[in-house]
Amino acid sequence: MGGVLYGLAPHTFCIAFILVSIVSATAATTFLKPVLLNRYFFYILIAISFIFATISALIYLKRNESLSPKGMKNKWKYLSILYGTTISVNLLFFMVIFPVAANLNLNPVSAAADSQNVQSKNLTLEVEIPCSGHAPLITEELKKISGVSEVKFRFPNLFDIKYNSSETQEDKIVSLEVFNTYKAKAVQ
Fold first, then answer.
1. At what angle are helices 12-23 and 41-63 packed, to 10 degrees?
2. Largest Cα–Cα distance in the chain?
């Protein structure tokens, strides 16, 4: 049981963030918006996970009376697994979970309403987000615009937007407040 706790400790903050995001993408993004506007937030989370991995390793090595270079050499398999899983979990979050969370569609547009929309246009934005962890924030901000019917995130930083041109325009979409922090430009 102690090994499981040592393995989970480095990922506590990332796991908590993901659980909050998945349970309620809209509420979590709204709640965490000020934090997500910090471009270094997810790098800070990665650093925290490595700090906790190191603390966990130190506690483990101390308990096993191996807190020395020779002890670390003897416990290299444990340390490799600990830091390897820390890296793997972070990659899983940034490459899979965050992009999936960005594309959660909690309020889908009805197919009938969308098919009747003859003024529907498509726009692809390239947004200067530092990582995919910021994608849910951008997606939720775009969905707040009246006339935007669909937003899809494509790794690493593309957002495909479907909107009704009689309700909103491209310049209104690109002028969102969030794009003051994360610059956006239309691409083809």
1. 130
2. 72
- 149-166 pLDDT per residue, tens: 888 988 888 999 888 888
**Among the residues of the chain, which ranges form H helices?**
2-8, 12-23, 25-36, 41-63, 69-74, 76-92, 98-102, 111-115, 135-143, 170-174, 178-181
For residue 184 the two structure tokens come to: 């956006």
Task: Read off the tokens for 117.
Answer: 């929309």
Half-sphere exposure of 78 (CA within 13 A, CB side): 19
Q: 128, 136, 132, 125: which is closest to 161 by C-alpha?
A: 125
Burial of 106 (0-12, 13-18, 19+ CB in 10 A): exposed
By CB atoms closer than 10 A (0-12, 13-18, 19+), residue 86 is: buried
At 119, the pLDDT band (50, 70, 90 cuts) reads: confident
pTM, to two decimals? 0.63
Q: Taking the CA atoms of the chain, what radius of gyration do you get in angstroms?
A: 21
